[in-house]
Amino acid sequence: MTSVPGTAxxxxxxxxxxxxxxxxxxxxDLPALSWREPGTTDWTTLTWSQAHDTVAALTExxxxxxxxxxxxxxxxxxxxxxxxxxDMALVxxxxxxxxxxxxxxxxxxxxICRHSRARLAVVEDADVASHWEKLLDDPRTPxxxxxxxxxxxxxxxxxxxxxxxxxxxxxxFERWHDLTPDRLVTVVYTSxxxxxxxxxxxxxxQVLAQAxxxxxxxxxxxxxxxVCYLPLAHIAERLLTLYLPLFRASHVWMCADPxxxxxxxxxxxxxxxxxxxxxxEKLATAxxxxxxxxxxxIATVIDSAREVATEYNGYLERGxxxxxxxxxxxxxxxxxxxxxxxxxxxxxxxxxPSSASAPMxxxxxxxxxxxxxxxxxxxxxxxxxxxxTLNNPAPGRHRLGSVGRPVDGVQMRVAEDGEVFLRGPSMxxxxxxxxxxxxxxxxxxxxxxxxxxxxxxxxxxxxxTDRKKEIIVTSxxxxxxxxxxxxxxxxxxxxxxALAHGDNxxxxxxxxxxDPEMTPLWAxxxxxxxxxxxxxxxxxxxxxxxRAVAAxxxxxxxxxxxxxxxxxxxxxxxxxGELTPSLKLRRRVVVNRYTKDLEALYQD
Length: 604
Hints:
Blueprint: H1 16-26, E1 31-36, E2 43-47, H2 48-64, E3 72-76, H3 81-92, E4 96-99, H4 106-116, E5 120-125, H5 126-129, H6 133-136, E6 145-150, E7 158-160, E8 184-189, E9 199-203, H7 204-217, E10 225-228, H8 235-248, E11 251-254, H9 261-268, E12 272-275, H10 277-292, H11 296-318, H12 324-345, E13 352-355, H13 362-370, E14 376-381, E15 386-390, E16 405-406, E17 411-414, E18 419-423, E19 430-432, E20 438-439, E21 448-456, E22 462-467, E23 472-473, E24 479-480, H14 482-489, E25 495-501, E26 508-514, H15 518-525, H16 539-555, E27 562-568, H17 587-593, H18 595-601
Parallel strand pairs: 1-11, 3-4, 3-5, 5-6, 6-7, 10-11, 12-13, 13-14, 26-27
Antiparallel strand pairs: 1-2, 8-9, 9-19, 14-15, 15-16, 17-18, 18-21, 19-20, 21-22, 23-24, 25-26
Pfam family, one: AMP-binding_C_3
Domain AMP-dependent synthetase/ligase: 22-432
Family: Belongs to the ATP-dependent AMP-binding enzyme family.
């Protein structure tokens, strides 16, 4: 039966609290939320019925603190149950929750607090609260109440989280009945590679339009499990572990420390796993290191199985019928070799392994494909409420290196300069203004300019080449995609991170960061003492990187080739500022930080 938009059977004509109530009534005993208490290895779980009761009680608690319908409330916590439950409770109270990245600088926190006009914030502990306390007395911000989950200090103006759920009910929980699908459900502030973050205003209807499209795109088991490990300030994690679980009655497993992901995945074995490219790269590095340490006879068996998987998946990618003999061989190696190997990683039941946020190096895609994991690159933005285009695991419905085709309801066009435009029911409402109104961000025909540059092939697959603002234009007038150059450089296992530079310059140069896992392994295999050494200055390592750059240049056009490079010590990350919290490269930060190094590469 096909639903008609705007009618009662339209799945987008609902609100998230309606879905929460449905799950509590129809699936009361199914698990909804699991987490580990600090210092323990056992999981604590709430069923959908228990989660609903907890959210109802928390809603009353936040209302007693003065939260009113339409209020904006800020959250700064890791992936813990209090975060998930508080977000749900605030939505039920009619408020608009926003998660702030835990890595946000004090000036960013202050800006978001002023811009959102939030009167209440909920933060993780007393240490985090120290960055917020001064805002309570700042006349430029309306912040009045600071709720602290762990180790609150009332003497510092903290309101304890503990006890909120014990508030005497006063009917606040019933406010959700007044919500309409076109009310805001959240404002997501972009992490931003430059300038102040922008607040993308998103409604219940837009979230459910996105959920409906994704549910139709890929068939997952009923009530699937999801691992929540990426920041909930990012639209991808909000969609996967806050909104889609309500739509699917899923089970959310909270992974408080992303570094513990490798240990959590084998326990959960999710059918859908999303990792930004850097996550897949790090997992691949760890697997490669493990394979390299295996005895030769076992490594030979695995290599043979990978060759079969590569051949088999090539047919699927091309949309060609797989020969019966190859199907049988693949079935055999999948069962005897690849599935046991993937089970150790917790990826043996994945039917939709996905990557988003930035272009995935093709060699990483090929590596996982050889293990039977076809990573489906997807593409979207905060403004598209997540996924706009998607590769599908079905034969002929994916192309490695592309970001797939538009999901149901999303329309796409490419302008003459290559910029990709989107429109559809899942596009955000617009950007929040400081006065609380929302500014539309589309043209008169409803098209939103994404700022991404790409091309569409004859089969309708979109290939993203770069950000429009990041295209390098050399002094010779040649346009170069830095992402293409960087991903080609990173195909060598020693190169973990790269920045290509050369705007208004006669040629390109690059800053390279060694992979912290593979480099010591490579060094030990060659008898180099890697213990405590700075390998970024070792002659043999530098010589190998030189060969890696030469190999990359052999595959690049003349304007794209890197003429000079410098190897740096120390990995780039969100904590040191070179990456956004969603692990995108902050080019301006890197260029400003290494200006002298870059200038030196242009000296004769």
